[in-house]
Amino acid sequence: MEQKEMDKVLAKAEVLIEALPYIQKFNRKIIVVKYGGSAMSNEELQKNVIKDVTLLKLVGFKPIIVHGGGKEISRWVGKVGKEARFVNGLRVTDEETMEIAEMVLNKVNKNLVRMVGELGVKAVGVSGKDGGLLQCDKKYADGQDIGFVGDIKKVEPKLLYDLLEKDFLPIVAPIGLDEQYNTYNINADDAACAIAKAVGADKLVFLTDIEGLYRDINDKSSFISRLTAAQAEELIASGCIGGGMLPKLSNCTDAIKGGVNRVHILDGRILHCLLLEIFTNHGIGTAIIANHETL
Description:
Layout: H1 3-25, E1 30-35, H2 38-41, H3 43-58, E2 62-67, H4 70-79, E3 86-87, E4 90-91, H5 95-118, E5 123-127, E6 134-141, E7 144-155, H6 158-165, E8 169-173, E9 175-177, E10 183-185, H7 188-199, E11 203-208, E12 213-214, E13 223-224, E14 226-228, H8 229-238, H9 245-257, E15 262-267, H10 273-279, E16 286-289
Parallel strand pairs: 1-2, 1-11, 2-8, 5-8, 11-15, 14-16
Antiparallel strand pairs: 3-4, 6-7, 9-10, 12-13, 15-16
């Protein structure tokens, strides 16, 4: 073998050795991956995210995927001649829009099941309606009624535990029921956070459309690779975090308070971002950790 080829082989071996302690540490631990954004609309990225999650499963993790589908829902809403409307980032969801959202989310769900299955791993797609998984009330936006948008009140994780025990990879669509069995669309970030707390996940990962967290979004040198939940709350209180990152960061700190050890914010547009963050010494995104852990 030529030296150039030998160097390539050795480099691969070094990557595997670097990953070994992480594989040992998180073996049989539950990791919840919230999958959405641009990574869902690009076929190549979609395939690579599923490959990453499948690899996590095969090396001993217990992954659960919670997916969104907002862009696809908006596309179908437009097809029937309706205009997508949002209040404080929440989709205004009348009865017809709820039917469209459920149809689209179920379609996305079964497509992800198919992709996982093609890689040789057993997956089961469920919605929050199955087994009473996501129980919710109507959610209001600053007191305004925005229709069938759910605010999670309880998670019943038995279905997920049963699937994990039987060696399935659960894939969850964020749809829930209220006490009167009305169907509600639920923000996927909220669903992922609630599920991670309910199943005692060791990690919660948000795949987003940004690189991670910045103290100043306009200053690339202000990137934050690691911070504690307490430091995250200080950032929120300071007012320097805004836009769509504010509710996401609030979900992160809420998850940590609920017992999740680490929450990761990653750019889902980067190929294999999940593996790079979890299996390498430095990672590529932002990790929010429990206050007692070491930065």
